[in-house]
């Protein structure tokens, strides 16, 4: 039994030896493979976990060298509405600047080409709290940000603009956009900059000042029929004169209706009414008498009154007349020139000039007869329609006497 055991046992012993060698080689190859994987994959570069590994991480975590500057300082009050807000960047370039009021309305501004500063396009509103958020990057692309809030001044003295035409109106081709300010303006450039006009279709529109309290806007020639005009009055915060600020934000939209231009010939005693370039009616008229002639020039209808009182005392004619019920009156000048119905001199229209400077059309007392020439013209006229007077023995009307800036050349208007 022992021999059998020995004979059988020897091979068993050899087999175990081979198994140990196989395991040893396997461990060796496994170790080599582990070395290769570590070498190719990289693993954790700082193996020890002490945070002293790759240098790139250290560079990425370095603070930005860019410094954002905001003026006025955070929390400032009584800040000027123009010139005080400034955002800049040192050792870097601005990439984002957002300035908003308390309602989330963003202030339009521009970052300079070199990224060194940001400036608002327009003035700020008065009595308003603003929040500033600005971001800058240094030469390595690392960002730095800053925020601040401030409140603008509350003015003691203010002004507004009283304008014509009204919002939503349809007017004639001669209607300018005219603004009369409640206080005299000593910084006209700042005020004019705060009024933005857009038209559809586009047409160049320029403003012209009459004195220091009136600003009119018009194109070079009469508006084209159908033009849509939008005006933004952003006067809130504008310092129109030292210590006097605008307090008005308003958008005014109006539309140009059909084109109607009427030409009064004081010599022939006739008025030709043209609409969209076509003659639609010829009406007999009476103009100013030899001693009280009618102005020549282009005049714009600025007011319509079905019946009104006309008293010579109000326009420098003393007690020469006082007519309490003048029918179908339409104002052509501030000084008192009207085109209106005339019932007290029924034979004058078409034959002679007898008025105190107005243009008269045949009519009846009370303005009740729609068949009368004056009634027809009144019903077919819009505010802003043009009435041109020629061949009168008088001077040309001044551009600021009514809405009559068309009597000034485009070059002078722009100047």
Automatic annotation (TrEMBL):
Active site as annotated: 340 (proton donor/acceptor), 358 (nucleophile)
Entry keyword NADP: no
CDD domains xref list: LDT_IgD_like_2, YkuD_like
Source superkingdom: Bacteria
Pathway terms, separated by semicolons: Cell wall biogenesis; peptidoglycan biosynthesis
Keyword Iron: no
Identification of the protein by name: L,D-transpeptidase family protein
Annotated source species: Streptomyces physcomitrii
Lineage, top ranks: Bacteria, Bacillati, Actinomycetota, Actinomycetes, Kitasatosporales
């Amino acid at each position: 039994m022992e021999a059998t055991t020995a004979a059988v046992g020897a091979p068993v012993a050899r087999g175990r030896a081979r198994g140990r060698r196989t395991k040893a080689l396997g461990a060796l190859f496994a170790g080599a493979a582990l070395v290769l994987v570590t070498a190719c994959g990289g693993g954790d570069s700082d193996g020890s976990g002490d945070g002293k590994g790759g240098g790139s991480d250290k560079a990425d975590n370095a603070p930005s060298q860019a410094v954002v500057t905001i003026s006025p300082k955070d929390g400032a009050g009584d800040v000027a509405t123009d010139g005080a807000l400034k955002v800049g960047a040192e050792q870097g370039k601005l990439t984002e600047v957002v300035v908003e009021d308390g309602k989330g309305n963003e202030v339009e501004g521009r970052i300079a080409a070199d990224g060194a500063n940001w400036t608002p396009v327009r003035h700020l509103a008065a009595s308003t709290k603003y929040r500033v958020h600005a971001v800058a990057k240094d030469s390595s692309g690392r960002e730095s940000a800053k925020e601040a809030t401030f409140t603008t001044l509350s003015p003691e003295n203010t002004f507004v603009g009283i304008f014509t035409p009204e919002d939503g109106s349809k007017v004639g081709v001669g209607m300018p956009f005219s603004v009369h300010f409640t206080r005299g303006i000593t910084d006209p450039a700042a005020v004019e900059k705060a009024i933005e006009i857009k038209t559809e279709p586009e047409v160049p529109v320029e403003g012209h000042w009459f004195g220091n309290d009136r600003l009119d806007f018009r194109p070079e020639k009469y508006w084209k029929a159908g033009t849509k005009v939008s005006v933004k009055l952003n006067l809130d915060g504008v310092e129109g004169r030292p210590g006097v600020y605008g307090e008005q934000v308003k958008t005014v939209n109006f539309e140009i209706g059909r084109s109607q231009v009427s030409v009064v010939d004081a010599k022939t005693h006739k008025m030709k009414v043209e609409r969209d370039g076509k003659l639609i009616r010829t009406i007999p008229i009476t103009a100013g008498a030899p001693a009280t002639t009618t102005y020549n020039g282009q005049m714009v209808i600025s007011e319509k009154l079905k019946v009104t009182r006309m008293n010579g005392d109000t326009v420098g004619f003393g007690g020469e007349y006082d007519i309490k019920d003048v029918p179908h009156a339409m104002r052509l000048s501030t000084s008192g020139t009207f085109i209106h119905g005339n019932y007290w001199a029924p034979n004058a229209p078409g034959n002679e000039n007898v008025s105190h400077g107005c243009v008269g059309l045949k009519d009846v007392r009370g303005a009740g007869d729609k068949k009368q020439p004056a009634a027809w013209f009144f019903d077919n006229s819009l505010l802003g329609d043009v009435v041109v007077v020629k061949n009168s023995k008088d001077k040309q009307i001044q551009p600021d006497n009514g809405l009559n800036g068309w009597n000034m050349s485009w070059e002078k208007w722009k100047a």
